[in-house]
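S.,

As promised, the flavin-adenine dinucleotide run. Input:
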Amino acid sequence: MPRNVYGPDHEAFRASVREFVERSLKPRAEDFIAAKSIDRAVWLEAGKQGLLGLDIPEEYGGAGADDFLFNAVAAEEFSKFNAAVSSCFGIHADVCPPYIVDLGTEEQKQRWLPRMAAGELICGIAMTEPSGGSDLAALKTTAVRDGDDWVVNGSKTFITNGYQGDLIIVAARTDPSKGAKGITLFMLETGMEGFTRGRKLDKVGQEESDTAELFFDNVRVPDANRIGEEGRGFIAMMERLPQERVGAAVSNTAHAFQILAETIEYVKERKAFGQPVGTFQHNKFKIAEMQTKLEVTQAYVDDCVAAHAKGELTAVDAAKAKWWSAQVQNDVLDECVQLYGGYGFMNEYRVARAWRDARVTKIWAGSNEIMKELIGRDLGL
Ligand SMILES: Cc1cc2nc3c(=O)[nH]c(=O)nc-3n(C[C@H](O)[C@H](O)[C@H](O)COP(=O)(O)OP(=O)(O)OC[C@H]3O[C@@H](n4cnc5c(N)ncnc54)[C@H](O)[C@@H]3O)c2cc1C
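Predicted complex:
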């Protein structure tokens, strides 16, 4: 089915993202794995090419695109190359900027946005804590007012871009008596005394992304680093999670499509019992099912992307796109590994890494269970 969500401008932008992937990312793929992170030089190159400031207005050094379709195009192209790279760039360029653009003061926008768009400052967002991520309203990190500062204590874990991030949006409890209404967002910056990081976490997949623990020991954070109103942090996150989730759905679908396409090429070549393994009826049918499932998924995700670009996507529809695409992606990649036989279990084959990389999509940014909880609640259950 032809896709009709993207126009000529989006396709021209796609060509430039592809060119960046070929030139700046592909030759360094092994370096990212070895370093467990994306080199700062690559962030700067991405910034120079205008890939990190799509959501940032022009007066603050961004592209001022104000059209989520461009973000979706970038997410697709990065995911086709590598899921971890897509996640790191996505957190920095799609997830974090809206907090500052929508909620930041003029001084904060001028201080951070131009350097974020340039790739000079790497950004992350820290919600999850060692004691739990699904029940965000129960977070334990505290921020206590002291004059013009806030004193932050606690810890976060599994934070993407957490190790090399220069700016981390941290959700902290400012009023213990108010539950979700007692949470406020702060920007923590590298170099603040008492703000330390653990090691880069050793993950099952997505080795290229830097995922870290963060520790806050009496960190003095100026009130000038508070993002948005006191007590409005939880609402700010809930309002922006649909964008993160539809972005995840875009990445999940593109990633699975890419690996399926590579698998189809493989099974045309690989022979068993004198014929290509893809021509056995069982395998042909499996592949036909996967292609169909992905195309149907793509249609729903495209509709969500279009709705989000118009400001009409509901949190519940974003949840549907996120859990469904994650499930389909994982189902498809598992079958792709099977079609590669033993090679599918070897790290030197992209399919093996992609299969490991995909596993987390059912967990992060709100697990599949939490997505279904949101959908069920919306149905009055
Ligand atoms: C690679 C990676 C990168 C990440 N990046 C970030 C990041 O940048 N920033 C950030 O803040 N977080 C990040 N996360 C954290 C991620 O969002 C959390 O892991 C996720 O929200 C789940 O929280 P948890 O791990 O504490 O699991 P828990 O909340 O302890 O849940 C454990 C299990 O119980 C299930 N469960 C919980 N509540 C319910 C319920 N009500 N009904 C049914 N089942 C339920 C969950 O679905 C899950 O299966 C990242 C995680 C990973 C692995």
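The CA atoms of residues 264 and 278 lie 7 Å apart. The mean pLDDT is 97.

- D.
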